Amino acid sequence: MIFSAVGDGRPYPEHGTSAAGWSAVPPRQVRLADLTTTRRTLDLAALLAEDSTFYGDLFAHVVAWRGRLYLEDGLHRAVRAALHQRQVLHARVLELSG
Q: What ranges does the record give for the region Disordered, renumbered to this chain (predicted)?
């Protein structure tokens, strides 16, 4: 299995982090096997697009909450990494207390 689990929604509280807030979080490597997705479906066009990160953040957004890592944004990046047989993804990890 690629991910730890496939979720449907965000189980953590709303964090209200803006794009500027995310850009202040330094990226780090995260193992794909440690991630729980927050979406069950993937937009195939986003996965196959050559410029899929052109207008957005280059790094996936992950929320750490209650000992789990939730992939909030960047599912297409994570799947693309898995298709290239990579086990890690560069992501910004936002730590939430709770």
A: 1-20
Q: Is pLDDT of 55 > 60?
A: no
Which residues span the domain enclosing 59? 5-10+28-95
Q: Is 29 exposed, middle or buried (0-12, 13-18, 19+ CB in 10 A)?
A: exposed
- Tokens 């991630």 label which residue? 35
> Is the residue at 17 inside a domain?
no
Asked if the structure places residue 19 within a domain, the reply is: no
Question: Comparing C-alpha atoms, which of 27, 13, 6 is closest to residue 71?
Answer: 6
Q: How far apart are CA 48 and CA 76, in angstroms?
A: 9
Rounded distance, CA 66 to CA 8, Å? 17
| Confidence at residue 94, expressed as pLDDT on a 0 to 100 scale | 98
Collapse the DSSP code of 4 into the 3-class scheme (helix H, G, I; strand E, B; otherwise coil) and give the result. Answer: coil
The answer to whether position 76 is within a domain reads yes
